[in-house]
Amino acid sequence: METTPPHSIDAREDCYPSRVQPEPEFLKRCDPIVYNHEAPGPLSAAQLSQFERDGFLILPAFFPEADIATYKEEIQRLGASDEIQQRPESILEPDHCELRSLFSVHKPEISPCFSEVAADPRIAGMAAQILDDDVYIHQSRVNLKPGFAGKEFYWHSDFETWHVEDGMPRMRAVSCSLLLTENYEFNGPLMLIPGSHCQFVACVGETPDDHYQKSLRRQEYGVPDQDSLARLAEDGGIVNVVGPPGTIVLFDCNTMHGSNGNITPFPRSNLFFVYNSLKNRLVEPFCSKKPRPEFIANRTAVAPLTMRELNVQSHA
Amino acid sequence: METTPPHSIDAREDCYPSRVQPEPEFLKRCDPIVYNHEAPGPLSAAQLSQFERDGFLILPAFFPEADIATYKEEIQRLGASDEIQQRPESILEPDHCELRSLFSVHKPEISPCFSEVAADPRIAGMAAQILDDDVYIHQSRVNLKPGFAGKEFYWHSDFETWHVEDGMPRMRAVSCSLLLTENYEFNGPLMLIPGSHCQFVACVGETPDDHYQKSLRRQEYGVPDQDSLARLAEDGGIVNVVGPPGTIVLFDCNTMHGSNGNITPFPRSNLFFVYNSLKNRLVEPFCSKKPRPEFIANRTAVAPLTMRELNVQSHA
């Protein structure tokens, strides 16, 4: 457990200014995607290249069914717990009382089960390999998109928010989504824009105080403009992440993504872990507002998952 | 042009009571789906059987690109017209000013172009064949689902509404949707539940006065219950209607359908014609309220499209 972040990069330099200009703008990405193609780890050279090109990698049925059954029981337990729903880490559906997201599920006091999953070398090892560094959990959550009334989540680059509102200096973080239910084409699956991670869409506008309380319920501010989104989607297309329970999708922190609503009877839930490089720890938010809560952006309780501990093996 | 509806069936008998019970209920369909497998027409025996089994038939790229280009120009004209947007036939997006739907596009005074399409023997002939009767346009519209902000349309059987609110006596109508833009898996395509047309889901509740003004913007009343929908979707699955511009989908008046929202940059538009059997003309609404406007449910300006005029040819 460290409390004083050591940074080997100039973390105070704002390479990705956003929400400060009157007009949207494409900025060149000035960070690597795969930090070292020779780094040891579970991913093959072809998988690393695919991740670098597309900004994501889908691994169908990566976790066995028995594990998924355990995780679903854990979610049942969390969803039924009044104590959990009253925690600040719980985000409810707009206009509904159902749990939409629960943050910090990697913490043993919230979920001993998911705490283990977050540190599982099978997934944390892939993140460490891509980022070529020891990692830690920047954010974790379980997302529950109910059947019949699941709301859409508008397009965004996670990094844009993490940079502006949380002070993540550079693009050196990887997200891992673990599908717990079957994701069909029609129940509001994650949509990704291939290649969108190679540019940064600077958004217009300012960050209001306490933005996070609203933005987690419904995106309103700091969203990418329609022209930029149309250009990205015309260039790269859109990929629906579909697959059976246990499927994993790894995606770069700057890959543009979103999801449509879900009127089908089939709910959609997933576990979501963000691994950040230990060299990329948070500084003060670049928007000069007060930082968001720790459960959304971990800045002090950093528990490193070292490459050595993750026992990452060379694929060679 | 006829004004006195002659009915060969007992049109006043309510075979499908809905919105009158405190609990939802599955009722047996008591009408044929394909009225005569030997009727002449453009559809093959295999296509008729598929329509009968699934409740719909998708014909990819049925209309040539040149025709679609003409239709899109016509929509541009209609969408840009202040005069059109101020007509009662225009329905706007909730919270937006954009056109969501325009009704009665089969009328020459609204669109000479779409008036011709509605009477085109290529599609009207298929409807007449399935229903084994002369047909007329019960309802027509163009639907425009914009990019970025297209709203969902919740599950419903059109017949449930047409029966309860418009007084359509029996299930003897076929809808034809003509896709004018590429329908992808991710831009809120029409979703159909195969086999759902074989049962009638009686909804709970009452029909409020002037329901149509709200329901066309956002479904609130007379919707199928979640348990019935879940059972239908578990039995039949869900099919996304995807395809290039010019694709046609024919579906039975009682096939359960809906669509998710559309946050992608790709808009979705289609032409929609409902062909009703001339023997199935509207009577008084079964909910005992005043009838909805003529542009939503054609009860007087019935212009028959006869099998003879449609020049339907036997497939044999």
Automatic annotation (TrEMBL), chains A, B:
The keyword Transport does not apply. The keyword Metal-binding applies. Its cofactor is Fe(2+). Keywords: Dioxygenase, Iron, Metal-binding, Oxidoreductase. It comes from the Bacteria. GO terms for molecular function: 2-oxoglutarate-dependent dioxygenase activity; iron ion binding. It catalyses: L-ectoine + 2-oxoglutarate + O2 = 5-hydroxyectoine + succinate + CO2. Homodimer. Belongs to the PhyH family. EctD subfamily. This is Ectoine hydroxylase. It comes from Symmachiella dynata.
